[in-house]
Amino acid sequence: MMLTRRQFIKAGIIGGAALAAAGLFYSRGLKEAPGSAVPPGLTSAGRTIIAAIVPAVLAGPLPASGEARSRAIAQTVDGVAVAVAGLSAAAQKELAELFVLLDIAPARALLGLWSGWEAAPAAEVAAFLQGWRESRLELLRSAYAALHDLVLGAWYGNPDNWPAIGYPGPAEILR
To answer: Which three-class secondary structure string do you get for the chain?
Structure first.
């Protein structure tokens, strides 16, 4: 079937509208609502994503269940927020773009995660991350490494977790 001029114009208009809508959602995702209680460096969507990733990355050292688990996840998310706030503006922008991409349902589905972050089981998130870790695309491997390193850095940067690995803490400096 040959494409008519009218069909071509319709397709162009529909495609342009879809791109404009996607751009609008994308740009809104990079901004946090004014007056929100989210610390600088990590949007609320980013915090939700990290909270879903923490149990997958820290499957071994994370408490099994209950209040201790919830508290450990929240402390790790806070640690990631602090780490992100300390990154360069360019690195923060790249992470913000990654979190926006991971927050958009169609993009998330294309990347291999079908459910929303709040409902995603740790096994599904772990499989998603493993797929990125073993991907042929350097971009996905880099994104995996960034998320993995941020979570582990926040976990092991917390003095409450040092005894579990036998780390006594930084040496005291003699005066």
So the answer is: CCCCHHHHHHHHHHHHHHHHHHHHHHHHHCCCCCCCCCCCCCCHHHHHHHHHHHHHHCCCCCCCCHHHHHHHHHHHHHHHHHHHHCCCHHHHHHHHHHHHHHHCHHHHHHCCCCCCCCCCCHHHHHHHHHHHHCCCCHHHHHHHHHHHHHHHHHHHCCHHHCHHHCCCCCCCCCC
